[in-house]
Amino acid sequence: MTTETSKDILQKFIFDNAAVRGELVETSNAWREIQSRHAYPKAVRALLGEMVAAAALLSANLKFNGSIVMQIHGDGLVKLLVVECDANLRMRATAKLRDGADVPDDATVTQLLNQHGRGRFVITLDPLDKVPGQQPYQGVVPLIGDDIATVIENYMLRSEQMDTKLWLAADEHVARGLLLQKLPRNSAIEGQVKQASEEEDLDTWNRAVMLGQTLKQAELLTTDVETLLRRLFWEETIRVFDPLYPQFHCTCSREKVANMLRTLGKTEVEAALHDLGELGVNCDFCGKHYGFDAVDCAQLFASDTTADAVAPASGVKH
């Protein structure tokens, strides 16, 4: 269970004079907000919560105005896990199960996501202010690992060539995580005056990982960030930065739904309208409903501007 001091906070820190950095994150309000729209099975909830914590940890180091989108495309009981988090730690998340999936509480990552070895882990870096012709960067790797932390560690080593260690845990109350990274030599590290030798960097990294490995999942679930930082690294010389504050935020909009309908084409939209009378789209992340009747859909394809097309027609009809 969670503690009374639980909150939404991310604490960045560096080891003094060594190319090693760390972060601790805790999300409780944001995580409960994500869960409030769906009744996920226990095992799925734990996986999604761990991805929420991991996305916040990785997003805290974004060097551009944009978002990280983490996806796992599964071939087991779960079809898809998605977490999106921007540089301001505004996040949303969702999971999709296969039709009729009966998920046991003790289901493994393999059972849930990689039964036939075809699971894929995808990270997309999506800048908000793209230059003309710029596409989001996307890295795709096989789903390698028995838990979410190992999957992401393998991705970071394979795609980013960066030594990364993660410890993640989530229940219905809170999602927490610890990240440690060994940075490249001669990298500019905020707050440091000088660097250690390569041997000292490696020694600091090995010692930090050893301390992190003492952290048990139950301890991670029940201990606040400040206490964890002090308990794990009280003998180390570390420098902490101003905390950051994760929060739930959904970026869905009527305009985005309208653009999606446009991509389907007029013929398909009209056929769907004939069968259904009105097109209703619910956001997978926040559950918000967007309705488009015949007049709304006609405007989609008759208007030259998105703004005209997405204004609800019900406001002008008699």
Short description:
The chain is of the alpha+beta class and 318 residues long. The protein contains 11 helices and 13 strands.
Describe the protein's architecture and organization.
This protein has 318 residues and is of the alpha+beta class. Helices cover 34% and strands 26% of the residues. It has helices spanning 29-35, 42-59, 109-113, 148-159, 198-212, 217-222, 225-233, 254-264, 266-276, 294-302, 306-310; strands at residues 9-15, 20-27, 66-73, 78-86, 90-97, 120-127, 137-142, 163-170, 175-182, 238-240, 247-248, 279-282, 289-292. It has a 6-stranded mixed sheet with strand order 7-6-3-4-5-11, with helices on one face. A 5-stranded antiparallel sheet has the order 8-9-2-1-10. It has a two-stranded antiparallel sheet with strand order 12-13. Strand 3 and strand 4 (78-86) form a beta hairpin. It is globular. Residues 304-309 and 313-318 have low confidence and may be disordered.
User: Which structural class matches the secondary elements?
Assistant: alpha+beta
**Overall body shape:** globular
**Strand line-up across the major sheet:** 7-6-3-4-5-11
Rounded to the nearest angstrom, the distance between the terminal CA atoms is: 54 Å
Q: Round the mean pLDDT to the nearest integer and report it.
A: 87
Number of helices: 11
Helix fraction bin: 25-40%
Strand content: 25-35%
Total strands: 13
Q: How large, in whole angstroms, is the Cα Rg?
A: 22 Å
Give the helices and strands as they follow along the chain. Answer: EEHHEEEHEEHEEHHHEEHHEEHH
InterPro entries: Heat_shock_Hsp33, Heat_shock_Hsp33_C, Heat_shock_Hsp33_N, Hsp33_helix_hairpin_bin_dom_sf
Organism: Telluria antibiotica
Keywords: Chaperone, Cytoplasm, Disulfide bond, Redox-active center, Zinc
Protein name: Hsp33 family molecular chaperone HslO
